[in-house]
């Protein structure tokens, strides 16, 4: 909100109000934009987010094979989904992939982001090269790594001394490892960019004061940089969690949920239910469950971290 000090009350209108100060002067206050400014974004969000979500919620209580008219079946879809052992297994696999993504990408992104925010030699060139995966779609990245890790013609086939039989997609542990590696390779640059911008916004006076007190590089990192990055860390983690819960293209192209159902995460199982079994009701139930789970976990992270109570990132200057 913009304010301006005047000696006389400002003219009424134009969305301005006046507040009298103790010294007799007036502060002109310009009001915030009205709700009309938010109407285009509100309409877009309602049409392309809220309405489809409501339709999915309704469909989760119906039976529909893609043809004809949906039939109301109540909670039958939910009962079948919750009693399905493949679905239960897919939930644990989804959580595993999500946890691996957060555990690997968070420290790596922080270190790279802080480094990229510095003034090292050739930093700009190396940063540009490193950010290339961020420009590619998940489908392109998955196709690329599927070819590179092909058990017959890819890198594992040429380095059997390191990869054994070369079939990284033939065992659950190695297949999940591939999914985690590809996700890290693609999305770490995005989170690095978040931390790079946040690290550059840290006031240099904090580091100067620490140097006067004799703090070294590591103490400055753990006592200044990390605390000032906590807002960005929470934001990045929420994005990672939502991304992990909704991972689909990577599994579809790299493992197809195999071997067997060992990498069938919930989002991929939803696809199988809808477009292979033509059970759109059950697929809608899985989709709605993913939305609810992502929302709840995000709210828990925000509440536990205290992110909702943070007023700014200049804690060291107050």
TrEMBL record:
Keyword Transport set for record: yes
Transferase listed as a keyword: no
Record keywords, A-Z: Cell membrane, Membrane, Transmembrane, Transmembrane helix, Transport
Major place of residence: membrane
Transmembrane segments: 35-62, 91-116, 128-148, 168-187, 233-254, 280-302
Segments forming domain ABC transmembrane type-1: 91-301
Compartments, as annotated in UniProt: Cell membrane
CDD domains according to UniProt: TM_PBP2
Highest rank taxon of the organism: Bacteria
PROSITE patterns: ABC_TM1 (PS50928)
One of the record's GO cellular component terms: plasma membrane
Topology in the lipid bilayer: Multi-pass membrane protein
Signal peptide: none
Any one Pfam family match given in the protein's UniProt record, by short name: BPD_transp_1
Region (Disordered): 1-25
One GO-annotated biological process of the protein: transmembrane transport
Family the UniProt entry places it in: Belongs to the binding-protein-dependent transport system permease family.
PANTHER family: ABC TRANSPORTER PERMEASE PROTEIN, INNER MEMBRANE ABC TRANSPORTER PERMEASE PROTEIN YCJO
Name of the protein this chain belongs to: ABC transporter
Organism: Streptomyces nodosus
